[in-house]
User: Fold DUF2599 domain-containing protein from Photorhabdus hindustanensis.
Amino acid sequence: MGSLGGDMKRIGFVLLVLFFGMAVFPASANNGHNNCRHGPYIESGKWIKRFGKMTLAVVPTKCGRNLHFGRTNEAFKELERKFSNSPHWYNTKGMRNQFDCHVDIARNKDKWNLDPYRKHVGYSATKKAGCNP
Assistant:
């Protein structure tokens, strides 16, 4: 026979599940993205013409959308490996600022348009301009 305290905890848990319709686990604080530490972060990307200039239209994976802002290095390295061999790729620092900005404030957009023709103005100015300095 279990202790009264243990039984009460189990009853409380069952009531939470019944009331909210889902289980609540302490591990949920990490949003369930432990398997995303090493990506993949980029589902697809292609160079498209917008406003008469070439843009890299990036579709992130679920892991890419749920990156912690301070952990974008691996994701950007993956992007570089996949797309930097294009003649359209230049201004890596500006594109990196735009990428980080999307992770920070626009992660739920369907695609992230990274524009190499936009000036490298630093991260703060990129963010202030809504990722499009």
